[in-house]
Amino acid sequence: MKTVENNYETDSQKILSYQQANGGEFWATADGNLLKGAPFTTIESPVYLLDLGMSKDDSIMLKCQEKIFNTWMEDGRFRLIPKGTIYPCQTVRALNTLCKMGATSDERLQRTFDYLIDTQEADGGWKCQKYSFGRGAETNYSTPMTTLIALDCFRHLDTKAYEQKLNNAVEFLLQHWDIKRPIGPCHHGIGTLFMQGEYPFRSYNLFYYLYVLSFYSYAHKDLRFLNALEELKQKIQDGQVIVERVVPKLAKLDFCEKGKKSALATKRYNELLKNLGVG
């Protein structure tokens, strides 16, 4: 079976070589934690491989999908960490990976989407009630990163039934462009690190922010979105995306080498432009 595009075979083999590095199978820990061991986890590694061209029907993908679904709960949440509180960021990460694996139509995920709609905050976002930095005024806001990933999930649906709710989430993120300062319990801000475009999409940053928002027409003509887009355009060289930030363990892989042009990151950028009707 052809696993990935020939250009990225070395990268894929490197990622696959970490399958048991965390003590369990398919990048999990021995006790079933699917988030520990970043950036090579059960939640993240399949997404890298999909970007590299692995088929959604590959046996590894199907086994990872099963492993993630095994953590699904009847109320729609996912328990990715065997013990402890379940936070919305964990549920949206699991949902996002499953959507990218092509499982969006699974009836269990519909319950998860319903759970997200039912738990949306008044400001339009989703909030992880974990106050590692205390309870300052900034924690009255939802969590920008969790909200961004939630919107990344909903883009895989026909969202007409949720349109106003999702527009509220988009508005929350657009407001953060003006606020700039760190908000939410996890203190996500728009500063130097945010402005460094990251690929693969792993954190709250300019490139991922714009990519996700581009799927929502509510943002397309908004001045805040357009100003952010102009900042990204200033970083494009000869039509190519330069990877400015990447987690160290991924930095030497060809598809996302730091400081180099990335064909796959550029593919995402072109998708963004297409969503705006200019690509």
From TrEMBL:
Q: Name one GO molecular function term.
A: transferase activity
Q: Does the keyword Transferase apply?
A: yes
Q: Which SUPFAM superfamilies match?
A: Terpenoid cyclases/Protein prenyltransferases (SSF48239)
Key words, A-Z: Transferase
Sorted alphabetically, which Gene3D superfamilies does this protein's record hold?
Answer: 1.50.10.20
Descriptive protein name: Prenyltransferase
